[in-house]
Amino acid sequence: MPLDELKITQAIIERFTEKLKSALNLDVAIVGAGPSGMVASYYLAKQGHNVAIFEKKLSIGGGMWGGGMMFNQIVVQKEGKRILDEFGVKTVPYREGYFTADAIEATTVICAKACQAGVKVFNCISVEDVVVREGRVCGLVINWSPVEVTGLYVDPLVVRARYVVDATGHTTEVMKVIERKMGARLLTPSGKIEGERSLWAEVAETTTLENTKEAYPGIFVSGMAANATFGSYRMGPIFGGMLLSGERVAQLIHKRLQQEN
Ligand code: 48F
């Protein structure tokens, strides 16, 4: 049978529309497809939750592709290795307590496993705002990234979510919107975004986990966004904390969803 270009076009439009419609009323909406967001999405989808992840770039994987300064290897500690083992990413022992993994393998495998677990991944979509009702985040305002890049004035669309995760990394973009637009008191010591501090791998890795928590009713922070929101250090190209933060935020939200059901 000759290929019909109209059928190809219809197939893409219909299937994408189905996917987007199935993401309008989510259990969890994750913003940012870096390592912490992808890992979080994987565990939540595995537990049967309706999860979508919105990534403003064309590619998913965030800052993991480039390892350290584009030397595409990552380092993890023993605890972080546990997560890579679960995903089936190969790790190689380096010195005691240090393991390396190929950044490309780690990124592609984690992203593939998340997609196969049922996470609905939307690339090229930026989250530009939130919906807050009765002092609680309950939705995201989304738009095509090229709209933002080209500065076109096009109104966005909205997805509803029982929980949101800000996994936007160093820029902690969703929390910034809440702080700026709602004038709200965040669940941080000062009530504001505390801000990221300079690099200190040891402390940053531990505090990433402690800071993975609800930062305003309905929204949790994970990965570097957790440290930026609650005022801790950056850690550089050691990725255990990112993976463990993704796991932690999934556990916390899963528990909440179970309590509410
Ligand atoms: O920065 P990123 O990889 O976040 P992460 O999971 O991991 C941090 C590490 O990569 C590294 C580090 C630790 O070793 O310090 O930096 O915390 O991924 C964040 C993703 O969020 C996307 C952004 O393009 C990136 O892929 N993002 C940021 N803002 C938005 C967004 C937005 N407004 N809408 C959609 N995606």
Task: List the keywords.
eight-stranded mixed beta sheet; 261 residues; globular; 9 helices; alpha/beta; binds ligand 48F; FAD/NAD(P)-binding domain
Layout of strands and helices, then pairs:
Layout: H1 5-21, E1 25-31, H2 35-46, E2 51-54, E3 73-76, H3 78-87, E4 92-93, E5 99-102, H4 103-116, E6 120-122, E7 125-133, E8 136-144, H5 145-150, E9 157-166, H6 173-182, E10 197-199, H7 201-210, E11 213-216, E12 219-221, H8 224-230, E13 233-234, H9 240-260
Parallel strand pairs: 1-2, 1-9, 2-6, 9-12, 10-13
Antiparallel strand pairs: 3-5, 4-5, 7-8, 8-9, 11-12
Helix pairs in contact: 2-4, 2-9, 3-9, 7-9
Residues 31-37, 54-57, 62-64, 126-127, 167-169, 171, 173, 223-225, 234-235, 237, 239, 242 line the site of ligand 48F.
